[in-house]
């Protein structure tokens, strides 16, 4: 069974070595988002992208996120986010693409969320480009 602690390694194994084909990673990420994670009360998904200078250099970040709310017994403990983050050179056609779209299970069907994301130009344009790299990491927020 998938747990919050092993979610990162589980997703990395699912994605494998094919990390520069954004569409394939997206399909794997979508399938992973439908899987149950032990202790998860509801699915929380985020698609976000934009040009940022987190490292001192402007880059375009194209990020699929699954968020986990962690409880110890019945008390809230913390949140963790598992990122599938593609990084691109910030070419002109990416410069003005910025979006942050959350999905919470109570919002409705997750498949409708995925379809809505796939229609966005912020999703479509980077899908056709080759990323510099993919980073898969989990962090406590």
Folded structure, characterized:
- The chain has 141 residues and is of the alpha+beta class.
- It has one domain (7-140).
- It is 30% helix and 36% strand.
- The chain contains 5 helices and 5 strands, in the order ααβββαβααβ.
- The chain has helices at residues 7-15, 22-34, 92-95, 110-119, 121-127, and strands at residues 44-52, 59-72, 75-88, 99-104, 133-140.
- A 5-stranded antiparallel beta sheet has the order 4-1-2-3-5.
- A hairpin with a 6-residue loop joins strand 1 and strand 2.
- The model has no long low-confidence stretch (mean pLDDT 92).
Secondary structure elements and pairings:
Blueprint: H1 7-15, H2 22-34, E1 44-52, E2 59-72, E3 75-88, H3 92-95, E4 99-104, H4 110-119, H5 121-127, E5 133-140
Antiparallel strand pairs: 1-2, 1-4, 2-3, 3-5
Secondary structure: number of strands: 5
Largest sheet: 5 strands, antiparallel
How would you spell out the order of helices and strands? Answer: HHEEEHEHHE
Indicate the mean pLDDT: 92
The quaternary organization reads as single chain
Strand arrangement, largest sheet? 4-1-2-3-5
Number of spatially distinct domains? 1
Distance between the termini: 24 Å
The global form is globular
Helix count, per DSSP?
5
Radius of gyration: 15 Å
State the helical fraction: 25-40%
List keywords for this structure.
single chain; 141 residues; alpha+beta; 5-stranded antiparallel sheet; 5 strands
Task: Sum this structure up briefly.
By secondary structure, this protein is α+β, with helices and mostly antiparallel strands.
């Amino acid at each position: 069974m998938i747990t919050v602690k092993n979610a990162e390694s589980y997703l990395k194994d699912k994605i494998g070595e094919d990390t520069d084909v954004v569409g394939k990673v997206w399909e794997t990420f979508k399938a992973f988002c439908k899987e149950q994670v032990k202790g998860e009360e509801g699915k929380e998904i985020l698609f976000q992208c934009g040009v940022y200078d987190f490292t001192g250099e402007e880059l375009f970040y194209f990020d699929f996120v699954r968020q986990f709310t962690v409880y110890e017994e019945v008390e809230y403990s913390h949140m963790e986010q598992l990122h599938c983050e593609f990084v691109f050179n910030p070419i002109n056609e990416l410069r003005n693409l910025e979006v942050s779209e959350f999905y919470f299970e109570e919002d409705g069907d997750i498949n409708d969320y995925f379809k809505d994301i796939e229609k966005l130009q912020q999703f479509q344009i980077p899908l056709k480009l080759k990323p510099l790299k993919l980073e898969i990491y989990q962090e406590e927020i």
